[in-house]
Amino acid sequence: KGYNRHRIRLQQINFAMAFSHGDKLPSILKPLPGSLRDVKSLKYFLEEFDLSRSTLILDRGFFSYKNVEYFLNNEIAFIQPLRRSSELIDYGTEMSEGFEYRKRGILQSKKDITDLLKKRIEWNNDSRVFLYTYEDVKLRGEEESNLILLRKNGKILGYDRTRLGKVSILS
Questions:
Q1: pTM for this entry
Q2: Which residues pair with 166 in a beta bridge?
Q3: Cα dihedral angle (94, 99, 103, 104), rounded to 10 degrees?
Protein backbone atom coordinates (compact mmCIF):
# COMPACT_ATOMS: atom_id res chain seq x y z
CA LYS A 1 0.00 0.00 0.00
CA GLY A 2 1.00 3.59 -0.52
CA TYR A 3 -0.26 7.02 -1.41
CA ASN A 4 -1.25 7.95 -4.93
CA ARG A 5 -0.97 11.46 -6.39
CA HIS A 6 -4.26 12.43 -4.72
CA ARG A 7 -2.83 11.37 -1.31
CA ILE A 8 -5.35 8.53 -1.01
CA ARG A 9 -3.95 5.39 0.60
CA LEU A 10 -4.72 2.54 -1.82
CA GLN A 11 -3.06 -0.54 -3.25
CA GLN A 12 -0.55 0.71 -5.82
CA ILE A 13 0.45 -0.87 -9.11
CA ASN A 14 3.30 0.04 -11.44
CA PHE A 15 3.99 -1.04 -15.00
CA ALA A 16 7.26 -2.04 -16.63
CA MET A 17 7.39 -1.54 -20.39
CA ALA A 18 9.97 -2.36 -23.06
CA PHE A 19 9.93 -1.37 -26.73
CA SER A 20 11.14 -3.47 -29.65
CA HIS A 21 14.02 -2.13 -31.74
CA GLY A 22 12.47 -3.19 -35.03
CA ASP A 23 8.97 -1.74 -35.09
CA LYS A 24 9.42 0.65 -32.14
CA LEU A 25 6.24 -0.59 -30.49
CA PRO A 26 5.79 -1.84 -26.94
CA SER A 27 6.91 -5.46 -26.78
CA ILE A 28 6.41 -6.05 -23.04
CA LEU A 29 3.95 -4.53 -20.60
CA LYS A 30 4.07 -6.07 -17.16
CA PRO A 31 2.21 -4.97 -14.03
CA LEU A 32 4.37 -4.83 -10.90
CA PRO A 33 3.38 -4.46 -7.26
CA GLY A 34 3.54 -0.81 -6.25
CA SER A 35 5.04 -1.81 -2.91
CA LEU A 36 8.36 -2.87 -4.50
CA ARG A 37 11.18 -0.34 -4.73
CA ASP A 38 11.94 0.59 -8.33
CA VAL A 39 15.39 -1.00 -8.36
CA LYS A 40 14.10 -4.28 -6.89
CA SER A 41 11.19 -4.51 -9.35
CA LEU A 42 13.63 -3.90 -12.22
CA LYS A 43 15.72 -6.88 -11.08
CA TYR A 44 12.70 -9.21 -11.39
CA PHE A 45 11.78 -7.74 -14.77
CA LEU A 46 15.31 -8.25 -16.13
CA GLU A 47 15.40 -11.85 -14.92
CA GLU A 48 12.03 -12.71 -16.47
CA PHE A 49 12.46 -11.39 -20.03
CA ASP A 50 15.02 -11.44 -22.83
CA LEU A 51 15.51 -7.73 -23.47
CA SER A 52 18.30 -8.01 -26.03
CA ARG A 53 16.11 -6.60 -28.81
CA SER A 54 14.26 -4.06 -26.69
CA THR A 55 14.91 -0.59 -25.31
CA LEU A 56 14.18 -0.02 -21.65
CA ILE A 57 12.64 3.35 -20.86
CA LEU A 58 13.13 4.04 -17.17
CA ASP A 59 12.35 6.82 -14.75
CA ARG A 60 14.81 8.53 -12.41
CA GLY A 61 14.06 6.10 -9.60
CA PHE A 62 15.74 3.26 -11.48
CA PHE A 63 19.16 4.90 -11.79
CA SER A 64 22.11 3.18 -10.22
CA TYR A 65 25.60 2.55 -11.55
CA LYS A 66 24.99 -1.15 -10.99
CA ASN A 67 21.94 -1.08 -13.29
CA VAL A 68 23.80 0.83 -16.01
CA GLU A 69 26.67 -1.65 -15.76
CA TYR A 70 24.20 -4.54 -16.13
CA PHE A 71 22.55 -2.94 -19.19
CA LEU A 72 25.90 -2.31 -20.88
CA ASN A 73 27.33 -5.76 -20.15
CA ASN A 74 24.16 -7.41 -21.45
CA GLU A 75 23.84 -5.03 -24.43
CA ILE A 76 20.41 -3.83 -23.36
CA ALA A 77 19.52 -0.46 -24.88
CA PHE A 78 18.17 1.98 -22.31
CA ILE A 79 16.92 5.53 -21.83
CA GLN A 80 17.53 6.70 -18.25
CA PRO A 81 16.66 10.20 -17.00
CA LEU A 82 18.98 11.49 -14.27
CA ARG A 83 18.30 13.56 -11.19
CA ARG A 84 19.49 17.16 -11.58
CA SER A 85 22.04 16.54 -8.83
CA SER A 86 23.76 13.71 -10.75
CA GLU A 87 27.54 14.01 -10.93
CA LEU A 88 27.37 12.78 -14.54
CA ILE A 89 25.77 16.02 -15.73
CA ASP A 90 28.08 18.82 -16.84
CA TYR A 91 25.95 21.94 -16.65
CA GLY A 92 28.74 23.87 -18.36
CA THR A 93 28.18 22.03 -21.66
CA GLU A 94 27.04 24.48 -24.33
CA MET A 95 23.44 24.07 -25.41
CA SER A 96 22.71 24.31 -29.13
CA GLU A 97 20.41 23.17 -31.89
CA GLY A 98 17.11 24.46 -30.59
CA PHE A 99 13.81 22.85 -31.57
CA GLU A 100 10.14 23.35 -30.81
CA TYR A 101 8.17 20.97 -28.62
CA ARG A 102 4.54 21.72 -27.81
CA LYS A 103 5.06 25.36 -28.78
CA ARG A 104 8.02 25.66 -26.39
CA GLY A 105 11.61 26.46 -27.30
CA ILE A 106 13.97 23.64 -26.32
CA LEU A 107 17.77 23.76 -26.44
CA GLN A 108 19.79 20.55 -26.46
CA SER A 109 23.25 19.08 -26.10
CA LYS A 110 24.76 15.64 -26.61
CA LYS A 111 27.96 14.55 -24.88
CA ASP A 112 29.83 11.25 -25.03
CA ILE A 113 30.47 10.34 -21.38
CA THR A 114 31.84 6.84 -21.96
CA ASP A 115 35.26 7.68 -20.49
CA LEU A 116 33.72 9.39 -17.45
CA LEU A 117 31.43 6.42 -16.80
CA LYS A 118 34.29 3.92 -17.17
CA LYS A 119 35.85 5.47 -14.06
CA ARG A 120 32.83 4.17 -12.08
CA ILE A 121 31.84 0.93 -13.83
CA GLU A 122 33.22 -1.62 -16.29
CA TRP A 123 31.64 -3.28 -19.30
CA ASN A 124 32.90 -5.88 -21.74
CA ASN A 125 32.03 -4.42 -25.17
CA ASP A 126 32.46 -1.28 -27.29
CA SER A 127 29.18 0.36 -26.24
CA ARG A 128 29.30 4.16 -26.02
CA VAL A 129 27.21 6.09 -23.49
CA PHE A 130 25.79 9.52 -24.22
CA LEU A 131 24.29 12.20 -22.04
CA TYR A 132 21.50 14.18 -23.70
CA THR A 133 20.54 17.42 -21.95
CA TYR A 134 17.45 19.42 -22.85
CA GLU A 135 16.66 22.91 -21.63
CA ASP A 136 13.09 24.16 -21.74
CA VAL A 137 13.62 27.91 -21.83
CA LYS A 138 10.10 28.71 -20.64
CA LEU A 139 10.36 26.22 -17.76
CA ARG A 140 13.70 27.75 -16.76
CA GLY A 141 12.00 31.14 -16.41
CA GLU A 142 9.08 29.69 -14.43
CA GLU A 143 11.40 27.82 -12.07
CA GLU A 144 13.58 30.87 -11.50
CA SER A 145 10.54 33.04 -10.83
CA ASN A 146 9.34 30.55 -8.18
CA LEU A 147 12.78 30.36 -6.59
CA ILE A 148 13.07 34.17 -6.43
CA LEU A 149 9.81 34.27 -4.47
CA LEU A 150 10.95 31.48 -2.14
CA ARG A 151 14.21 33.31 -1.52
CA LYS A 152 12.41 36.61 -0.92
CA ASN A 153 10.19 34.89 1.68
CA GLY A 154 13.20 33.36 3.44
CA LYS A 155 12.31 29.77 2.52
CA ILE A 156 15.59 29.14 0.69
CA LEU A 157 19.01 30.79 0.83
CA GLY A 158 20.00 30.41 -2.80
CA TYR A 159 19.85 28.20 -5.86
CA ASP A 160 21.93 27.02 -8.79
CA ARG A 161 20.75 28.79 -11.95
CA THR A 162 22.67 26.41 -14.23
CA ARG A 163 20.28 23.53 -13.46
CA LEU A 164 17.00 25.36 -14.04
CA GLY A 165 14.74 24.10 -16.81
CA LYS A 166 17.04 21.19 -17.68
CA VAL A 167 16.43 17.47 -18.03
CA SER A 168 19.30 15.04 -18.71
CA ILE A 169 19.00 11.55 -20.11
CA LEU A 170 21.60 8.79 -20.19
CA SER A 171 21.50 6.37 -23.12
A1: 0.82
A2: 135
A3: -10
